[in-house]
Amino acid sequence: MNTSLRTLGIALALSILPATALHAQVSVGIQIGLPGVQIGVNMPSYPTLVAVPGYPVYYDPQASANYFFYDGLYWVYTDDNWYASSWYNGPWELTSRDYVPLFVLRIPVRYYRHPPSYFSGWRADAPPRWDEHWGRDWAQRRPGWDRWDRRKTPAAAPLPRYQQKYPGDRYPHAVEQQRTIRSEHDRYVPREAVSRQHLKAPAPVLQRRAEPDARPDSRREPARIGPRSDNERRSNDRPSQRQPSKNDRSVQACEPGSPGCRAAPPSRKEPGRKPKDDEHNRGRN
User: Fold this and answer.
1) How many Cβ atoms are within 10 Å of 1's Cβ, its own excluded?
2) What Rg, from alpha-carbon coordinates, does the chain have?
3) Which of 119, 124, 158, 266 could form a cystine bridge with 115, CB 3.0-4.6 A?
4) What is the dihedral of CA 35, 143, 69, 61, to 10 degrees?
5) Under the phi-then-psi rule, with left for phi > 0, alpha for psi from -120 to 50, and beta for the rest, what region is 200?
6) Does residue 56 contact residue 154 with C-beta atoms inside 8 Å?
7) Which stretches does DSSP call E strand in 9-130?
8) Which residues contact 262 (CB under 8 A, 6 or more apart)?
9) How far apart are CA 166 and CA 188, in angstroms?
10) In the 8-state DSSP scheme, what is residue 62?
11) pLDDT per residue as tens digits for the range 218-230
């Protein structure tokens, strides 16, 4: 009888073990799904994100996964794959290694909280050796991935701290609901194309430098755009009403003998008229 009870207990323990292991996987690490199915990290509350010195990237030192934030997206590296999400607890989408942002690939090894075994022996202050691990073809598609001018490193994107208000049961798992909440709280425009595509965000608008004014008169009227009104057309078609100057040849002659009258000189010689010298000499004769 004791032997039968012992055998039954062992059988029950073996039947319960797989379910217990699966539960531990869900609550601690990554939920591995079928190919093409979104996977997720179980983050019951907003993560503790710390800036990686010298990089526009954050990492979570308390996470049980390789968990990062860059350019408006959360990134997770597990089972040699990269996953991205706009919210801290997914849903996560598989991202091709050809499109993972370079600054994510450049994160030094020491900031991977759950590094895989093939990271062993790699420098802690340098990025993983993706070119060796993923091969020459990948390295040719992404040349210079580990080299950049550190003086031109972009600033880190602001953290979406509004997501702190949605822990546990309040977390919005529907993508459309996540996008609606983000549109109300987040005005950040991502730099990376993969981030814009994931967030459905427009491309950043580049500010153009104003061209200097070549004309000397800086008080000119701005150019009119669109059709003119009837009053403007009549005003522009009307002859100019400017005041003539004293030396203006276009001034008409006034009545001789009137006060202030100065006869305007003729603009051209009339045909058939003789010079004044000839008339003067003829009068003497």
Assistant:
1) 5
2) 41
3) 119
4) 90
5) left
6) yes
7) 50-51, 58-59, 66-70, 73-78, 81-85, 93-95
8) 246, 254
9) 20
10) T
11) 455 555 555 565 6
Q: Which two tokens stand for residue 62?
A: 């308390």
Query: Both tokens of residue 129?
Result: 């050796």
Token pair listed for 68:
């990062």
Q: Which of 75, 70, 153 is nearest to 113 (CA)?
A: 75
Tell me the residue type at 41: V
Looking up tokens 């039968």 gives: 4
For the chain, give the number of residues: 285
Which token pair is 171?
């977390």
* Residue type for position 113: R
pTM above 0.85, yes or no: no
**What 3-state DSSP class applies to 229?**
coil
Please report the sign of the dihedral spanned by the C-alpha atoms of residue 94, residue 99, residue 103, residue 108.
Answer: positive
Q: What is the pLDDT of residues 228-246, one digit of tens each?
A: 656 655 555 555 555 555 5
266 secondary structure, DSSP code: P
